[in-house]
Amino acid sequence: MGIGNTYMETCSKCGLCIDVCPRYDDISLIDDLCDFLEGVCEKPCFDIKRCLTCNLCTEECPEGLSIKNLITASRQKMTTMNGITAGQTTADPFSDNNFYRKFSEHRKIYTFKREGWNGEVLFFPGCAGTIIFPRMSKAMVNVLEQAGVDYTVMSGIDSCCGAVAAGTGNREPAMKKGVTIIEEARKRGVKTIVTTCPGCFMAFKVLYPQFIKDMDFEILQASQYLKKLIDERSIKLGRLESTVFYHDPCHLTRGMGIHQEPRDILKSIPGTILMNSTTKGSACCGLGGGVRVNFPFDSIEMANQRHAYAKELGCDTLITNCAGCLQNLIEGSNGSGLKIVDLTEYVAESMGIKEKHSAQDDGETIHLLNEVFCDCLPAYRERKRFFYHHQAVADNHT
Ligand code: SF4
Ligand code: SF4
């Protein structure tokens, strides 16, 4: 039975999923998507680009269903029917229009000392962690060096995991890249794979085992590996005085079930007070599912709401665990005054390791990101104009 018919049989239309969804408010979305997936209509009436893929709907459903899964299947079906769109090419590592490729034409890419080495632990920083925010990857490398880990690195577009392309409905890059990445990891003698990006983590844990046999690696997200190093006493955390908010990345917390390890780490740092010790109230930063490029104003507004929430709790620092969230939380800070860092950077700092970076560096990165969005997606230039116009109007009213 097709996914649409399965949903039609199981869904009680209780509406709990729609009640928590930040992007849709009409329960008939489910019927619409089911009809499309079962071939009753040629395309959905609802705009499937609006979905953040945040999985809040999945978490609420008493039947174990998920609007997000219907959206993902619909995006895949649209790709099969119509081919790849300009938006999808930006996430495709084989395309000249790949966003990270374009970005790297404007900025020198950080080179990791142990790129290509043999090692037991593979550190996999992902495209964003290599090209956009190397500051978080440098922090992880510094931790690995200080802990004396036998590690190797595979970074950049050549080693793109393909997860973002798969999220847009284009699975082919993940299938091709997965095979070469795993072959290379085997050649290097890797036993454990550590990713900072939740998308790369999902690729190794969920996507690749669907087409690669004997994935006999230990696969850990950075927070899990850092916790392991702390538990084994391979690293020692020093005092860091801060009142912090941990921002749960959707694809890590609800997508992959990782939310306790980062909190355990933060609670174990002397002087650090964690104000949200559970996932209650967690929500998307606004970047996910292509919403940042397709609906920039909504996206930045959502990031801004995360800052407001953390400020209400009396926090001075916002910590996340994903390069995409880091990007949107920086861009959406709107002068909140909160310090914004990745968990790995915070851990490195508590170990006495501090990489230099400034608000100006972040500002330049965000400016360049927007320029590259314009370059990759002609439609974005118009959206950007609209976005800045609305932001200026909003600022005048605050
Ligand atoms: S929460 Fe689950 S059962 Fe209820 S309407 Fe949504 S998909 Fe259907
Ligand atoms: S994944 Fe998030 S945005 Fe998409 S339908 Fe579910 S709750 Fe709504």
In short:
The chain has 398 residues and is of the alpha/beta class. 52% of the residues lie in helices and 8% in strands. The chain has a four-stranded parallel beta sheet with strand order 2-1-3-4, sandwiched between helices. It has a four-stranded parallel beta sheet with strand order 6-5-7-8.
What would you note in describing this structure?
Helix 1 (3-10) runs antiparallel to helix 3 (28-37), helix 3 runs parallel beside helix 5 (67-82) and helix 8 (126-132) packs across helix 9 (134-147). The N and C termini lie far apart (53 Å). Helix 12 (198-207) links the parallel strand 3 and strand 4. The protein is built from 21 helices and 8 strands. It has helices spanning 3-10, 16-20, 28-37, 56-60, 67-82, 86-89, 99-104, 126-132, 134-147, 163-167, 172-187, 198-207, 222-231, 250-256, 260-267, 291-294, 296-312, 323-331, 343-350, 359-376, 378-396, and strands at 121-124, 151-153, 192-195, 218-221, 242-246, 272-274, 317-320, 339-342. Helices cover 52% and strands 8% of the residues. The protein has 398 residues and is of the alpha/beta class. It has 3 domains: 3-83, no CATH class; 99-229, Rossmann fold; 237-396, Rossmann fold. Strands 2-1-3-4 form a 4-stranded parallel sheet, sandwiched between helices. It has a 4-stranded parallel sheet with strand order 6-5-7-8. The structure holds iron/sulfur cluster (SF4) (2 copies).
Question: What labels would you give this structure?
Answer:
398 residues, alpha/beta, Rossmann fold, 3 domains, 4-stranded parallel β-sheet, 21 helices, binds iron/sulfur cluster
